[in-house]
Amino acid sequence: MASRAMPTAQHARPPVFDAAFTEALDTLFAWRRDVRRFRTDPVDESALRACLAAAHRAPSVGNSRPWRFVRVSDPGRRAAVADSFGRCNEAAAGTYEAARAAQYRALKLAGLREAPVHLAAFCDAATGTGLGLGRATMPETLAYSVVGAVQCLWLAARARGLGVGWVSILEPEAVAGILAVPPAWRLVAYLCLGWPQEEHADPELERHGWQPEDPRGAELLER
User: Pairing mode, if any, of strands 163-167 and 185-194?
Assistant: First the structure.
């Protein structure tokens, strides 16, 4: 019986990224900020699709690509998500002492009312793609893969002048119900996307005195 030939690997010349590109990339990372203050101007459909295409190039455990993006356009569903934020936001404020709670309430923590585009990013926990490869001992890597896709979308949006805000002060199960998604889909991120009202190089929470920069994240431990 004749043996089957192994597939031939496709070789391509890798791109060369010069110093100017590297500097621009570093600038992109520095200016990738969580935007909460949006203009209401519409986002071009081709720009949104380009950002989603970038998200789909993200790495994923076992090449599972478990991300499922839902664009939330219906006003009623948007209002219901905003109501969920309102409940969670007020509950969170109640966990702080009075002065800190007042500071918390003064923060701008979401752009749900203004952002022209709402995207909910879910993890499809029931996906069979990848056949479970790489996640037997760390099943959470399936959700981590969705986070990688969100980051790719975020950078692609910022490179086009768009801003993204990640709203995490929500009830995940309530949002899944509002959007009527399959039971196996787990909410990872609710994203507001649009044109920023203002540009800042520093994080908003630092700028408004919520917390100073924590240098520990930049440390490299040796073992």
Answer: antiparallel
DSSP labels for 49-67?
Answer: HHHHHHHTTS--GGG---E
Cβ-based neighbour number of residue 181 at 10 Å? 17
Task: Encode pLDDT of 157-204 as tens digits.
Answer: 999 999 999 999 999 999 999 999 999 999 999 999 999 998 887 788
Q: What is the CA radius of gyration of the chain?
A: 20
Would you tell me which CATH number, out of the four given (3.30.1640.10, 3.30.420.40, 3.40.50.150, 3.40.109.10), belongs to the domain 60-210? 3.40.109.10
Candidates 193, 181, 188, 112; CA nearest to 148 is 188
Closest by CA position to 71, among listed 31, 42, 100, 39 = 42
Q: How many CB atoms lie within 10 A of CB 67?
A: 27
The residue ranges of every structural domain in the chain are 60-210
